[in-house]
């Protein structure tokens, strides 16, 4: 039996559930009982499948929220931060920081944070404050710059 290519509500729901459960579309589409990724993308582009598109978008928002939930768990998990230091005869001589595990945790946090910011920029994206440096009336500003740019005539 080949991969499914016909859209069904049951298949769409299964895809969305797995995405909301933090599984990538690429991983889902590797399963033989699931459609190819290109098929799912064509369903998403189909104007007749707006309900699926909305459900898929919601699943991606839930995915982002799940990643944010994991950030604190990863940061708080110290289980592999230290490893035993042993001498040549195998006796424990102390503990040392496990830099590889710590860097891996930092990468996992940064990746999840980046994905959450991209999937839900209004909720998790960086807030950009507009600059508040310009004051005064427009006519006054125009008068102040009159003739001061690129050799324009002074007008007066």
Shape: flat
Largest beta-sheet details:
2 strands, antiparallel
Instruction: Kindly state the percentage of residues in helix.
Output: 40-55%
Structural class call reads: mainly alpha
CATH homologous superfamily grouping: Homeodomain-like
Number of E strands: 2
In the CATH hierarchy, the third-tier topology is known as Arc Repressor Mutant, subunit A
The CATH architecture assignment turns out to be: Orthogonal Bundle
| Overall pLDDT score | 89
Reading the helices and strands in chain order gives HHHHEEHHH
Strand order of the largest sheet: 1-2
* Strand content bin: 5-15%
Distance between the termini: 84 Å
Q: Which CATH class is shown?
A: Mainly Alpha
Task: Offer a concise description of the structure.
The chain has 156 residues and is mainly alpha-helical. It has a single domain, classed as Homeodomain-like (Arc Repressor Mutant, subunit A, Orthogonal Bundle). The protein has helices at residues 9-20, 25-28, 37-45, 50-76, 99-119, 121-124, 138-145; strands at residues 82-86, 92-97.
Question: What is the strand and helix layout of this fold?
Answer:
Blueprint: H1 9-20, H2 25-28, H3 37-45, H4 50-76, E1 82-86, E2 92-97, H5 99-119, H6 121-124, H7 138-145
Antiparallel strand pairs: 1-2
Helix pairs in contact: 1-4, 4-5
3D structure, described in words:
Helix 1 runs parallel beside helix 4 and helix 4 (50-76) packs antiparallel against helix 5 (99-119). This protein has helices at residues 9-20, 25-28, 37-45, 50-76, 99-119, 121-124, 138-145, and strands at residues 82-86, 92-97. It has one domain (9-123): Homeodomain-like (Arc Repressor Mutant, subunit A), CATH 1.10.10.60. The protein is mostly helical and 156 residues long. The chain has seven helices and two strands, in the order ααααββααα. The protein has a two-stranded antiparallel sheet with strand order 1-2.
């Amino acid at each position: 039996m080949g991969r499914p290519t016909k859209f069904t509500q049951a298949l769409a729901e299964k895809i969305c559930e797995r995405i909301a459960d933090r599984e990538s579309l690429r991983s889902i589409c590797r399963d033989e009982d699931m459609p190819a990724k290109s098929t799912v993308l064509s369903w998403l582009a189909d104007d007749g499948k707006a309900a699926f598109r909305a459900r898929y978008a919601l699943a991606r928002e839930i995915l982002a929220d799940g990643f944010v939930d994991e950030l604190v768990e990863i940061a708080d998990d110290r289980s592999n931060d230290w490893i035993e230091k042993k001498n040549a005869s195998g006796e424990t001589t102390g503990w040392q920081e496990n830099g590889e595990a710590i860097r891996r945790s930092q990468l996992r946090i940064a990746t999840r944070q980046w994905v959450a910011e991209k999937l839900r920029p209004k909720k998790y994206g960086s807030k950009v404050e507009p600059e508040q440096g310009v004051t005064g009336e427009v006519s006054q500003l125009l008068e102040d710059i009159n003739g001061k740019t690129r050799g324009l005539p002074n007008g007066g």
